[in-house]
Amino acid sequence: MCVRTWCTSTGAERLAVRPCSQAAGWQRAGRAGRTAAGAAYRLYTARDFAARPEHNVPEIVRCPLTSSMLMLIATEMDPGTFPLLDTPPRESIQASLLLLKELGAIDSENNPKLTILGRKMTAFPIDPKYSKVLLCAPEYNCLEEALSLVAVMSSENVFYTPLHKREEALKVKQKFISPLGDHITLLNVYKAFCKAPLKKQWCKENYLNHKNLSYACEVRSQLLSVCQRLNLPVTSCGTVMDQLLKCLLSGLFTNCAWARSGAGGGAGGAGGAGSGPARYVTGAGAAAALHPASVLHGARPPPAAVLYTELLHTRRAYLVTVSAVQPHWLQQVAPEYARRCRNR
Hints:
Keywords: ATP-binding, Helicase, Hydrolase, Nucleotide-binding. With 344 residues, the protein is of the alpha+beta class.
């Protein structure tokens, strides 16, 4: 199973593949006999099962706490002393407060109070990083596109690639691909979905998940209502996608990575002639490669800098949902964080 974890020392959020707990195994086995007699087959030994932990680690202990900390501060509760059932590590709380400070949501890490921006961020039922993106979107004249992109990113994977039709599905995907990367590709998919008359049939023909795209439409409608209550002007950047990527960077600035020298391209120009896949290092110091499913995977020359949504750990570390960005954008959008990255 994929487990979301967060490393407070590096600030990296990861999707790691882990064996399920005993409780999760029994819960899944229970599904076999829910409506009729059935059997569950486990593809591991009884000794392996007995060695697993009884329960999964609670999410509040292993995941980012920025949303929880923001809500506690909004209700004037002390994030450090609030009596949670499972108390997260102190370093997790401090790292979350630091991120909220860098996002501009609170005035300080000690005895934090919400800023005007932070008060607006609490109106959105999404991760503070994404609410920061939406609140900054009017500055970049791209709230129309930002709403759609954040909605799709809040949903599950919209692409469907059956093994027996993999080549055909990849060929169909080409019509949506943007050379700028995965985020604009997702935006292209969403726009095409909204225009499609027979949406279920269209999704089937284009190997897309109708349920997840429909959910994204519902999320977008909810987010649009919040933006309207906050009197945010819903403008469009048209075809100037750099504006949208800069806006995305305003909330996801901690998710930047730079090409490493001698791995398909240099950190400065990423124009090397290496034959292997380009390797990147994140602002948190983690080394990773572009995920094979990314439209930028195998690009020559590889981008000098990228913005990613998730860091996936299987046998290797991969950057998932990636777009090419200009290295100097980080200094423009988040100068304090850029300075911290240079000093690492």
